[in-house]
């Protein structure tokens, strides 16, 4: 049955050229984090894993907290670390204490990563709640921004990089306006919403030429901006754009899928695939037929279990059939995705392929004895 693929997740339209592939539901009470992935990189992303630490009122209420969503990209360990730290100017010591606690408790032993700081790339972002000291008295408030002040004196904070802040403080606004809220809350404007990153020490010392080393991972900031047009909150959202250059530690994808023959709706299809020598398959692997823009690994048109639908296997070549009963009648452009439940990843993907609408009449079908590929 299909019960193992049930999901209450509802896809939304995607207009960005990047395709969002959401591999795993977020932890309860935590915000949705989407990993944005280019189609060609998907087979080289694996091992999605998560961790979280509630904070606020000793962690019982969970009004604050941190969630980490991590994965392997071309053999490098990547971590997206979203934090909502304690607020108020006077709470800086407790805020830093909460952050230290989080770093101690966020471990990923199953991935052979002892501590969150052992990731090759750590992206730290969220409502960090760092305030501005004496905002009303300053002509240059950035000099008294608590986060910038900490980076001058704290060795851990010095390991994180951040771009220049070319935008005004992102908090606290009257909702549905661009005016700061100076009501009885008496909160001072501040750059509470931040995006920082940290590269592992070994990667910081890469040579300029990627051909000179086995590991090369370079991250270049292209933009760092807030978006004043979104006014539904007392915060203004912040985005960052990076240019990433790396030397892959994986030369070929674990699985290469190839569609066979001419693909026509209403006819069962055959998929051929090969596996890299060190990749071990299991009965929990399946091949999905997805629209070209994949919103979710389980947002398939139809699928087939590799073990149950295997029709041929010899000399490293395997063939699986996919029943056509789930195909859309109008055809269209699709991808074949080789999926692993145990790895929570797409480990192989075909090039985009066209499935044609079936225009044959019953007479045509009888003439070809039920084989649409007969000439």
UniProtKB/TrEMBL annotation:
One of its GO terms (biological process) is negative regulation of glycogen biosynthetic process. PANTHER family: INOSITOL 5-PHOSPHATASE, INOSITOL POLYPHOSPHATE 5-PHOSPHATASE K. It comes from the Eukaryota. InterPro entries: Endo/exonu/phosph_ase_sf, IP5, IPPc, SKICH. Pfam families: Exo_endo_phos2, SKICH. Residues 1-250 form the Inositol polyphosphate-related phosphatase domain. One of its GO terms (molecular function) is inositol bisphosphate phosphatase activity. One of its GO terms (cellular component) is plasma membrane. Belongs to the inositol 1,4,5-trisphosphate 5-phosphatase type II family. This is Inositol polyphosphate-related phosphatase domain-containing protein.
């Amino acid at each position: 049955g299909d019960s193992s693929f049930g999901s209450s997740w509802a896809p939304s339209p995607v207009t960005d050229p990047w395709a969002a592939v959401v591999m795993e539901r977020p932890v309860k009470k935590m915000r949705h984090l989407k990993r944005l992935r280019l189609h060609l990189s998907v087979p080289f992303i694996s091992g999605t894993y998560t961790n979280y630490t509630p904070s606020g009122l000793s962690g019982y209420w969970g009004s604050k907290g941190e969630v980490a969503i991590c994965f392997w990209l071309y053999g490098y360990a990547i971590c997206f670390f979203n934090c909502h730290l304690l607020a108020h100017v006077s709470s800086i010591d407790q805020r830093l204490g909460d952050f230290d606690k989080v770093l101690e408790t966020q471990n990923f032993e199953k991935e052979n990563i002892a501590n969150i700081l052992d990731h090759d790339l750590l992206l730290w972002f969220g409502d960090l709640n760092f305030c501005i000291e004496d905002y009303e008295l300053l002509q240059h408030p950035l000099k008294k921004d608590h986060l910038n002040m900490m980076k001058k004196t704290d060795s851990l904070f010095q390991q994180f990089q951040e771009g220049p802040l070319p935008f005004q403080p992102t908090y606290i606004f009257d909702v549905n306006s661009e005016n700061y809220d100076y009501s009885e809350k008496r909160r001072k404007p501040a750059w509470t919403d931040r995006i920082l990153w940290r590269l592992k020490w070994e990667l910081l010392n890469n040579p300029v030429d990627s051909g000179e080393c086995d590991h090369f991972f370079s991250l270049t900031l292209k933009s760092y901006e807030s978006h004043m047009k979104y006014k539904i909150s007392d915060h203004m959202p912040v985005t960052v754009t990076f240019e990433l250059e790396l030397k892959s530690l994986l030369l070929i994808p674990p699985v290469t899928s190839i569609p066979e023959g001419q693909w026509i709706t209403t006819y069962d299809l055959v998929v051929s695939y090969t596996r890299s020598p060190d990749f071990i398959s299991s009965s929990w692997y399946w091949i999905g037929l997805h629209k070209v823009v994949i919103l979710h690994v389980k947002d398939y048109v139809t699928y087939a279990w590799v073990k149950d639908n295997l029709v041929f296997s010899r000399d490293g070549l395997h063939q699986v059939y996919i029943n056509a009963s789930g195909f859309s009648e109008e055809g269209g452009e699709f991808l074949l995705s080789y999926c692993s439940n145990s790895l929570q990843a797409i480990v192989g993907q075909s090039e985009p392929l066209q499935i044609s609408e079936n225009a044959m009449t019953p007479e045509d079908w009888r003439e070809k004895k039920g084989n649409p590929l007969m000439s």
